[in-house]
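Dear support,

I submitted the protein below through the web form. The confirmation email said the job was done, but the results page showed an empty box. After a refresh the structure appeared. I'm attaching both so you can tell me whether what I see now is the final result or a partial one.
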Amino acid sequence: MTNETQNPSAPGPDAALYARRASSFGAKAGAYAEHRPDYPREAVNWLLEPVAGRSAPKVLDLAAGTGKLTAVLLDMGLDVVAVEPDAGMLDQLRRELPGVPAHRGTAESIPAEDASFDAVLVGQAFHWFDPERALPEIARVLRPGGVLGALWNADDDRVEWVAGLRDLLVSMPTLSRSGDRSKPLMGHEAFGATEERRFIHGQPRTAETLTATVATHSHLLVMDDAERAATLEKVRAYLAARPETAEGEFVLPLVTIAARGVRAED
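What the results page shows now:
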């Protein structure tokens, strides 16, 4: 499942837990690379429409993780640079995509010169940023008229068995419902109004590989070993009981949510 969007920089008693979740992925970078879904090319094309007329646009994949979005951008023939804060995730990205320039850095402190990119894209990570610091920094590295785009893969809970698995997970005490991915991304004078579009997507899975996908999410990564094992056993039992998922390969239905804003011309 792909639902996790809380902002770890938000104030309150959950801030420490959110910070733990935000930094939990590196230890499981190999599993993340193997089991997380990619992004549909049509969603990326839509994000990049505002700069489609530019010759050889340069794209920053910010908070690139293990390179799920980076690989799509490469396949599209784009000039891409990756920036990722977690050393474990960055090492995995470099192993997966050795030819890509990849640097350690954060959305709040991007290792790039002013006006050096035509687009900054963020896959499954914008919700971890501190927007008050990240948005001015993203605006700094974008050229005038450049685009800031964000993508999230969300489970398509219009499908009955997907909704049932979601309900199983959010009913557990350590887990909580995801935030609204469609909330406006832009809150800085450099960007205009946010546009949003949704794209149908899917990921081939089996019961075991979907269970492994669930295990890569930060909710699970911060559990103690016993609680994590018990949670994953409940997931296995649920999938074994559903005719759609009990045997062989199936497609996990996803909706890819894409949002974009354009940097104001100077």
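Response: this is the final, complete result; the empty box was a page-load delay. The beta strands are 58-62, 79-84, 102-104, 117-123, 142-155, 195-205, 250-262.
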